[in-house]
Design brief:
Two copies of one chain form a homodimer.
Chain A: E1 3-8, H1 15-25, E2 32-37, E3 42-45, E4 51-54, E5 66-69, H2 75-78, H3 82-92, E6 97-100, H4 104-110, E7 118-119, H5 126-131, E8 137-138, E9 144-147, E10 150-153, H6 158-171, H7 173-182
Parallel strand pairs in A: 1-2, 1-5, 5-6, 6-10, 7-8
Antiparallel strand pairs in A: 3-4, 9-10
Helix pairs in contact in A: 1-6, 6-7
Pfam families (chains A, B): DJ-1_PfpI
Protein name (chains A, B): DJ-1/PfpI family protein
Domain DJ-1/PfpI (chains A, B): 4-168
Chain lengths: 202, 202
């Protein structure tokens, strides 16, 4: 059965947060059907300046099986956007997995979805992100964190490692190994190994 | 001085080939100005199904300092597209660096730009790619290959390692280290180390 992935875009989303995972999910097109979703359909500008086309708006009634929420400079604004937070909350009620990359976890936190749950984020933005969710059990040393349906990753390229773990979880380890191999990507398989976690803090 | 990067899109381009490098160049926005370019401006569909917006067409007269040419399933068609090959040849006359990721090197090869030069490509498509350039000195074991102005990388995520090496070449090693660190990306710094080169051949 094909799983539908809702890939959430907003102005100032971080390029690789979104399109690293899209590349890897895309290796298994029979299993995953991806759609870019934003508040309104049409071009959405990334933090790097180029534009991706959102195929659907938040008024679309589709229910996604997996949500993919990127970070990026735009999250600083989107944490106060009720349209985005409301859509995330509504989708999360029935979604099988809610995933985020980098500061995307701030959006999940502000939507109240991570309360009482373990989660992580980018190490260079960690202090800001943790303030967006005072009732979240933030994990500093982690490449990514799995807590039930909620999978959150550390910064940018960590999203690819989390995605491969999710592919392994859903389709089996060989499917994830094959995606990594095709992309000639050295998969960091250990969720707890985080070489970037010691830079800014003691 | 800002360097202009022409990021070449065509139907069926590989997502991460393009947007891994875009992410990393984007960490130094004072140094690099990126523009997505295609045969015609407007939405261009990736091999993974979503669309990026090309800001300029090949009839735009801008000269780019750096060309970034991705691979993807679409290269099988584009090797016979005189509009694309002609644009690459014209741009390459004055560009400081001509870079490709994955099967993007087949496009450079068919444009005649790699004749007599060392180059590499994706290991799973190597036999096809080498046929597109019989006068190219193809290097099988390489994460990426530098030959003067022509930098070609192996598959997909190898483009990020090549990009970091180019950033180091242009802006100094700390600038590349900083981009990798911000993206929480473990940079594979050795161009000759290719763990994916031994899978399909003896």
């Amino acid at each position: 059965m094909t799983m539908r992935i809702g890939c959430v875009l907003f102005d100032g989303f971080e390029t690789l947060d979104m399109f690293g995972p899209v590349e890897l999910f895309g290796m298994h097109e029979a299993a995953f059907e991806m759609r870019l979703v934003a508040e309104a359909p049409g071009p959405v500008r990334s933090a790097q300046g180029w534009q991706a086309v959102a195929e659907a708006g938040f008024d679309d009634l589709a229910q996604y099986d997996i949500l993919l929420v990127p970070g990026g400079a735009g999250t600083r604004r989107e944490v106060d956007n009720p349209a985005l937070l409301g859509w995330l909350k509504a989708q999360a009620e029935a979604a099988r997995f809610i995933t985020s990359v980098c500061t995307g976890s701030a959006l999940l936190a502000r939507a109240g979805l991570l309360d009482g749950k373990r989660a992580t984020s980018n190490k260079r933005a960690f202090d800001w992100v943790t303030q967006t969710g005072p009732r979240v059990d933030w994990v500093y040393h982690a490449r990514w964190v799995e807590d039930g349906r909620f999978w959150t990753s550390s910064g940018v390229s960590a999203g690819m490692d989390m995605t491969l773990a999710l592919i392994a979880h859903l389709l089996g380890r060989p499917a994830a190994e094959n995606a990594a191999d095709w992309a000639e990507y050295t998969w960091h398989r250990d969720a707890d190994h985080d070489p970037f976690a010691t830079r800014d803090r003691a």
